[in-house]
From TrEMBL:
Pathway: Carbohydrate metabolism; galactose metabolism. Residues 3-252 form the NAD-dependent epimerase/dehydratase domain. Its EC number is 5.1.3.2. Gene3D superfamilies: NAD(P)-binding Rossmann-like Domain, UDP-galactose 4-epimerase, domain 1. NCBIfam families: galE. Keywords: Carbohydrate metabolism, Galactose metabolism, Isomerase, NAD. It comes from the Bacteria. GO terms for biological process: galactose catabolic process via UDP-galactose, Leloir pathway. The keyword Isomerase applies. GO terms for molecular function: UDP-glucose 4-epimerase activity. This is UDP-glucose 4-epimerase. Pfam families: Epimerase (PF01370). Belongs to the NAD(P)-dependent epimerase/dehydratase family.
Length: 331
């Protein structure tokens, strides 16, 4: 039986595919390459190009392959873009999930691991955030993912499709040998932008606001290494295969870093100056997002290897230095 990774050509999906292939799993990747890269997909995986909203495409993949588990990364994830184009997010993320679940139901596939997000909490009621805390998103991206969580719960009740929803905090880093990494066009995420400044590809970093309700006034986020994240998915697959009930887990490091602290850590990790200036706030940014990830550690036995944000940045730096133009496949 194989594992279908939808969105397996994207940043997090490609790390998951490599991790699964290293464990000798049979991996099928489906990706529409709208933001992903064909070159990011490990050669041991079988690749289908297509869109999860396209029923005929999905049907073909499920008909041709013996799939028993789906891992879903095929969502848009840029908070500021979602503020400007909310319908794009509800279409691809929320409606895409419905199409995928319909095909899973019709092909009797009973397990799905899917990427949810810290953005479903909105402005947290307390910190660190626990899984049972209130979810009240402040941007369409978070709302689209909250809707996906709700839809999947009902699909479980009606069709017995078991799920694990993993609420990621801020994912960073790259495969340690620098062979795959983060490449979005245009890039909006903090770590790759900082490293583009370090590399000299950008003149300076704009820090979006220093008047937030945080110790140094800049947004605080919880950064987790992409390979640790992939490992959590592998444990989540095992959790469902062992017959456990559907559940939701936060994935973070439980430590918050401000934007200014990230810049400082990157200066130390790279030895570069990294000029930065204060710029206006970016819409949709909550002050602080820090995960309580005890549940993933105790229930899934998740044991993240990267607990030092400098080490996380170093892996991304290796990718950036060896791939200054990313995958170099922009159309
Ligand atoms: N930031 C800057 N300058 C930049 C880019 C980012 O100051 O040039 C700041 C942002 O304002 C924010 C922080 O750096 O405070 C992190 O921003 P990112 O864009 O890297 O990440 P987000 O926190 O917006 O979102 C990420 C993922 C989401 C996820 C969220 C959960 O992209 O999918 O983390 O914490 F939901």
């Amino acid at each position: 039986m194989s594992i279908l990774v939808v969105g397996g050509a994207g940043y997090i999906g490609s790390h998951m595919v490599k991790r699964l292939a290293d464990q000798n799993e049979e991996v099928i990747v489906a990706d529409n390459l709208s933001t992903g890269h064909r070159a990011a997909v490990d050669t041991r995986a079988k690749f289908y190009e297509g869109d999860i909203r396209d029923h005929a495409f999905l049907k073909q993949v499920f008909d041709q392959e013996s799939i028993d588990t789906v891992v879903h990364f095929a969502a848009f994830s840029i908070v500021p873009e979602s503020m400007e184009k909310p319908l794009k997010y509800f279409d691809n993320n929320t409606a895409g999930m419905v199409a995928l679940l319909e095909e899973m139901r019709d092909h009797n596939v009973k397990r799905i691991i899917f990427s949810s997000t810290a953005a479903t909490y909105g402005v947290p009621e307390k910190s660190p955030i626990e899984e049972s805390d209130r979810q009240d998103p402040i941007n369409p991206y978070g709302e689209s993912k909250l809707m996906m969580e709700k839809i999947i719960r009902w699909a479980d009740k009606a069709y017995g499709i078991k799920f694990v929803a993993l609420r990621y905090f801020n994912v960073a880093g790259a495969w340690p040998d620098g062979s795959i990494g983060e490449d979005h066009g245009p890039e909006t995420h903090l770590t790759p932008i900082i490293l583009q400044v370090a590399l000299g590809k950008r003149d300076e970093l704009s820090i979006y606001g220093d008047d937030y309700n945080t110790p140094d006034g800049t947004n605080v986020r919880d950064y987790v290494h992409v390979v640790d994240l992939a490992d959590a998915h592998i444990l989540a697959i095992k959790y469902l295969k062992d017959g456990n009930e559907s559940d939701v887990f936060n994935l973070g490091s439980s430590t918050g870093f401000s934007v200014k602290q990230m810049v400082e850590a990157a200066r130390e990790a790279t030895g570069e100056k990294i000029p930065a200036k204060i710029a206006p706030r970016r819409p949709g940014d909550p002050d602080s997002l820090i995960a309580a990830s005890k549940k993933a550690r105790t229930v899934l036995n998740w044991n993240p290897q990267y607990d030092d944000v400098k080490e996380v940045i170093k892996t991304a730096w290796k990718w950036t230095q060896t791939h200054p133009n990313g995958y170099d496949d922009r159309k």
